[in-house]
Write a structure and sequence with these properties.
Structural class: alpha+beta
Low-confidence stretches: 23-28, 105-121
Number of helices: 2
Mean pLDDT: 74
Helix content: 10-25%
Radius of gyration: 18 Å
Shape: elongated
Order of helices and strands: HEEHEEEEE
Largest sheet: 7 strands, mixed
Strand content: 35-45%
Length: 121
């Protein structure tokens, strides 16, 4: 298929309309391209004392269609802590990727429990 100037203009108009004030978001089909933290650490010294002062690897995150990430599941050493509100964590490493919006939050992930998993409240 040959890409014409008019087709390209239509694509650009569609992307701009879908982003609607969120230039970091580019929807392709039902996928949302977004920046996400791959590694995080606790912001507060209280949480560092409670859960350990170490960098954790993100294993899952929520994703809304507007690109918002509200909760992370993070593996700190051998322990996975689920549903950590994003405002409790500090980003150590970030990257971009895309997938469908999950919009899972709180209890919707409960069925995926492991024996070494904790929940953050």
């Amino acid at each position: 298929m040959k890409l014409t100037r008019e087709t390209l203009k239509d694509i650009v108009r569609e992307v701009i309309a879908e982003a609607d004030g969120h230039p970091q978001i580019l929807k392709k089909n039902k996928e949302v391209a977004h920046n996400w933290a791959t590694h995080m650490e606790w912001k507060s010294s209280t949480d560092k004392e409670k859960y350990g002062d170490m960098i954790g690897e993100v294993i899952h995150h929520t994703l809304f269609e507007d690109g918002t990430i509200t909760k992370y599941d993070v593996k700190f050493g051998e322990k996975t802590i689920k549903n950590i509100p994003s405002e409790m964590l500090e980003v150590v490493k970030m990257q971009e990727h895309s997938h469908e919006a999950t919009e899972e939050d709180d209890d919707e992930i409960e069925d995926k429990k492991d024996k070494d998993e904790s929940h953050c409240s």
